[in-house]
Amino acid sequence: MTTLTAPTPPETSSAPPPSRSSRGAFSPSSLLEALPGAFRKLDPRLMWRNPVMFIVEVGAALTTLLAIVEPFVGGPGTSGGTAIPGSFTWGIAIWLWLTVVFANMAESVAEGRGKAQADSLRKTRTSTIARRVTDYQETEDPAAGASDLEDMSSADLQLGDVVVIVAGELVPGDGDIIWGIASIDESAITGESAPVVRESGGDRSAVTGGTRVLSDRIVVRITSKPGETFVDRMISLVEGASRQKTPNEIALNVLLASLSIIFLVVTLTLGPIASAVNADVTLPILIALLVCLIPTTIGALLSAIGIAGMDRLVQHNVLAMSGRAVEAAGDVTTLLLDKTGTITYGNRRASEFVPLDGVTVGELVEAAALSSLADPTPEGKSIVDLARVLGVDVGESAPGDVVPFTAQTRMSGLDQPGGTTIRKGAGSAVIVWVEQFSPLHRSVRAQLDAEVEAISQGGGTPLVVAVATASGECRILGLVHLKDVVKDGLKERFAELRTMGIRTVMITGDNPLTARAIAAEAGVDDFLAEATPEQKMELIKREQAGGNLVAMTGDGTNDAPALAQADVGVAMNTGTSAAKEAGNMVDLDSDPTKLIDIVRIGKQLLITRGALTTFSIANDIAKYFAIIPAMFVGIFPGLGVLNIMGLHSPASAVLAAIIFNALVIVFLIPLALKGVAYRALSTSRILGRNLLRYGVGGVIAPFIGIKLIDLVVSMLPGF
Amino acid sequence: MPVLLATFQAATLVLMLAITHRPLGAFMAHIFTSDKDMALERGFYRLIGVAPRTDQTWQSYLRALLAFSVIGFLLVYGMQRLQPLLPYALGLPAVPPGLAFNTAVSFVTNTNWQNYSPEATLGYTTQMAGLAVQNFVSAAVGIAVAIAFVRGFARRTSGTIGNFWVDVTRGTLRLLLPMAVLGAIVLMIAGVIQNFHGFTDITTLTGGTQSLPGGPVASQEVIKELGTNGGGFFNANSSHPFENPTGWSNLFEIFLMLVIPFALPYTFGRMVGDKRQGYSILAVMATLYLASLVILSALEYAGSGTAPMLAGAAMEGKEQRFGIFATTLFGTTSTLTSTGAVNSMHDSYTALGGMLPMLNMMLGEVAPGGVGAGLYGMLVLAVITVFIGGLLVGRTPEYLGKKIGPSEIKLASLYILVMPALVLVGTALSFAVPAIRTDVETTSILNPGNHGLSEVIYAFTSASNNNGSAFAGLTGNTPWFNTALGLAMLLGRFVPILFVLALAGALARQDKVPATAGTLPTHRPLFVGLLVSVTLIVTALTFFPILTLGPLAEGLR
């Protein structure tokens, strides 16, 4: 038996695509830019959506009123037995307003980061002239060469319209190419300057409005309504305009609101209760207490965290259609990864021809090459290439009718004019085909099985080649060994995912043996071999029935149902519009390994919320030790022992607590925008670390902060 | 020496609880999951027309519970108002409406706040057929709610959380009654009285005459502790020698209060199919209990002020036959469960020590809490803790495979809101409304100033938590307190139950999410620590201000 080996395939690099810009950094100047927006957001009609900050605003307004009235009713007087300096109420009022402004600033900064991108996207949306085919005949004239065209504004295009676009023109709207092939500059959307090829009838047929056709002429059927195009959705997403609260965010809001209510009750009842022991406190001090207690830190930063989370995805060139999807990504427990392109370097290449006994190598090579001539897949091309290397040239165009590969038949081939038919494909499929003619001889079957097994166990993919003559004589010639190359560093990433509690499942059309070998090499937890779209769908449903959350990527139209079914479906930007429509995220770089980053970002979003909530609540302890003794120490001097920070005076203690409360928001804006650092560790360790940092840290930090601020405040006259 | 004695008592108690924890917990899991009814139960179900194998939705479970409690309330109220017509009334008159309302609510809600002196107000029939029956069934209701809540975690995609009638019947007949019979025998052996003698006039050694009350005390006493009720047969409650004669009876009564609440976590672990979860809840309860006990004991041993110095120890309001540790052990137990029985006057503890019973109740009585109520209270706190912890590890929070989403958090938050709101608003109203304030300050408060405020805070804390103990200086039998405390007890009992059952329903509807390496582990020490902190911080943040005005201002002089 002769085997021929081809040179190893060229390695295609899969380095992460360059990020569109370096907007990850946070600059203090962006705070200033956000100021006007922060003031605009003071409108109570906008504020009341954030109950925590709304309470602060009401408190600020009330304190301002008191500060104005006070001089006319004899000054602030005494509170809890301590004389209050005249400027105290103004101080509280100003810092309360600043607290609200800082909170709004955080949100504005987060939104501002999306704005720049939205502006550049908006430019692509400027209406262009679309040339609509008035009477498109799909069968007679697919190229629309003889049809009448009418010029109209792209804004007036309707769903289902057919337009013609030639080189140099902008694509007027989202659609699928129904005829033709073109290279397209998508840099306006993806930031990637290299043009991409889009052609009709495959999984790369989608075009996006606003991109530019660089060469050739295509006919496109519009698939989106005006105003609802991909770009429109992108703009509203990056601007945060269409941001809806996610389930976790709603739950957190409920918790924060109920904490606020408890503290509202605490403060409202404290007045009368204090009066029972003749320790009456003034309203500004009660308001200060309330604001210090309600979770203002997280309340102020909550929406910024959400916007920033979406923005982080955008920086990874991923568009999430909803925040819900981002959150679900953090919860994913099962990751479905297509083998090709994700786990292995895209293309399997023919590396070897293995003829069966009684077949010459030349015969096998020629049949394999002939059947692959019209096969556009990289595998098919690699067979032709390998044949050429071995000195068998079968020309350029396929002689006869091409039988394309389908997921159902799992075979492709060629029906030659003379009646000779060639089939190549998965072993089981080809055997079924051969046995239509005559049963397979046992010795042939045995040899075939042995070779298939040998190739598969080595992680390769065996393609069986068979030929049938016009007279019905059918035999199996041999096998083509296709080799997969697993990407570097994947094993470590999958191990990392395992510690995060995520199971990886490799999806492949290969037979189980091949799949097992590659799965073992790549280190995935499970695999689905000889997968059809139906099986994939079934797998997702089975996983979900067990309570798992499933994430997957896909690009083809036949992936659409599975993308829709999955909890996180990431469609490749190169994919069909059906796929993009079905998924809840689109990866502009069309990089399936991105899924792992998406999961990370989802987790980071939740952790950031949790961390700031913990920090916010933990802060209250120190604030109590600042304010409570200050409130009553005039009447009950013994309470002075609770003033463990040794704050200068009751008035300075309260003001220092309020100032700390406001400033901490500003200090935490960068953290809210950047997100808490996430490392794939065991859950217990993550919890331990975060509790230490944000829980214990949250208890200690304000003791230091308030003390320092008090030192400054105590220098003010009167305090 | 005192340390040695204290250690011995504590060790005996721990040993007794350790022995009973597993078998009793397993037994409770068995009776609330069993498919078989006893003949007596079948007869009872036929009588009230209940299909015992039909599970209820949370709404219908709640309706049954409320109906049952309303009937219980009407019976107890009616018996008090019609007391002269009942046998064994001992010639006592009908109880006035305000007090009758307060008392009926108090016993139906498992509070047993007593605005009256029982031996001088209630005859044997009212005590035994009215109050004692409620002592059993109100405890059974608490356990039923806890079990229904646990079923919410245990069941998947189910619309139902069990059958209220079955749960209450089994809790009473299979659990509380047999244990009460056993316990009563032990108490009688320890010297607690059990008779129907009414009042006996005796001549004392000094020649004076005294009227000594008798009565079926042991049978009342046992369920008072076992059902974490706390309503004494005598006004002096467990400091009365007929109720609690010796150090041994004292320890046994403490054991009775703790035995079911500390066994329920095991039941919980068994029913959700992961015993470690039960142990972690138990660990939280035990940690809080021990910490509170140690602090109170330390404060009382330290004493302060002139009187304790002269007396040699802070013995005011404490019984000589118990001494300090047996007192703090009882006081801690009584206020950390929802019992409210007292073997000393909490009012007379050292100023800071008096804060501990208050703080114990303010924790929400979850360590280990009242029968059933402690477990469900702690599990609600666990839900909140899981939510924060879950976010911290980057997953949508889930507890025992159930996602804690917006609706679950809403119900848990509302649960947490009720008790502090009742305590704070009740206390504030006592001083905010001028007419009430005058009444409170002139009639009710014995010691003006910080201590008087503490008395009022204590009363509302006790009522809202269904504890029933009091800072005894307060005169509670006034229209304001009878009504306000009655409402606090009523709302403090049934509003949280409403939210717990709704939460149980929401959880039962969900499917279970399998635990993965990414799930927040809820059986590790870290989670125990986090849950302890959340329990403490939620309480501290809510009550710190008023505690500074009450016991802290009084104690930090």
From TrEMBL, chain A:
NCBIfam families in UniProt: ATPase_P-type, kdpB
Keyword RNA-binding: no
UniProt topology in membrane: Multi-pass membrane protein
CDD domains referenced in this protein's UniProt entry, alphabetically: P-type_ATPase_K
Oligomer status and interactors: The system is composed of three essential subunits: KdpA, KdpB and KdpC.
Reactions catalysed, as given in the entry: K(+)(out) + ATP + H2O = K(+)(in) + ADP + phosphate + H(+)
Similarity section: Belongs to the cation transport ATPase (P-type) (TC 3.A.3) family. Type IA subfamily.
InterPro entries: ATPase_P-typ_cyto_dom_N, ATPase_P-typ_P_site, ATPase_P-typ_TM_dom_sf, ATPase_P-typ_transduc_dom_A_sf, ATPase_P-type_domA, HAD-like_sf, HAD_sf, P-type_ATPase_bsu_IA
Cell location: Cell membrane
PROSITE patterns with a match to the protein in the record: ATPASE_E1_E2
Function: Part of the high-affinity ATP-driven potassium transport (or Kdp) system, which catalyzes the hydrolysis of ATP coupled with the electrogenic transport of potassium into the cytoplasm. This subunit is responsible for energy coupling to the transport system and for the release of the potassium ions to the cytoplasm.
Record's keyword terms, sorted: ATP-binding, Cell membrane, Hydrolase, Ion transport, Magnesium, Membrane, Metal-binding, Nucleotide-binding, Phosphoprotein, Potassium, Potassium transport, Translocase, Transmembrane, Transmembrane helix, Transport
List of catalytic residues: D338 (4-aspartylphosphate intermediate)
Chain residues that bind ATP: D375, E379, F405, T406, A407, Q408, T409, R410, M411, S412, K424
Binding site for Mg(2+): D555, D559
Main location: membrane
Coiled coil: none
GO terms for MF: ATP binding; ATP hydrolysis activity; magnesium ion binding; P-type potassium transmembrane transporter activity
Enzyme class name: translocase
Pro residues biased stretches: 7-19
Annotated ranges, domain P-type ATPase A: 148-239
Protein name stated in the entry: Potassium-transporting ATPase ATP-binding subunit
Automatic annotation (TrEMBL), chain B:
Keyword Transport recorded: yes
One Pfam family named in its UniProt record: KdpA
GO annotation, cellular component aspect: plasma membrane
GO molecular function, one term: P-type potassium transmembrane transporter activity
Residues spanning the membrane: 60-78, 85-108, 128-154, 175-193, 251-269, 281-302, 373-393, 414-436, 484-505, 526-547
Membrane topology classification: Multi-pass membrane protein
InterPro entries to which the protein is assigned, alphabetical: KdpA
Subcellular location, principal: membrane
The keyword Transport belongs to this UniProt entry's keyword annotation: yes
Keywords: Cell membrane, Hydrolase, Ion transport, Membrane, Potassium, Potassium transport, Transmembrane, Transmembrane helix, Transport
Entry's localization field: Cell membrane
HAMAP family on file: KdpA
Function in brief: Part of the high-affinity ATP-driven potassium transport (or Kdp) system, which catalyzes the hydrolysis of ATP coupled with the electrogenic transport of potassium into the cytoplasm. This subunit binds the extracellular potassium ions and delivers the ions to the membrane domain of KdpB through an intramembrane tunnel.
Subunit details: The system is composed of three essential subunits: KdpA, KdpB and KdpC.
Family statement drawn from the similarity comment of this UniProt entry: Belongs to the KdpA family.
Protein name: Potassium-transporting ATPase potassium-binding subunit
Organism the protein comes from: Tessaracoccus antarcticus
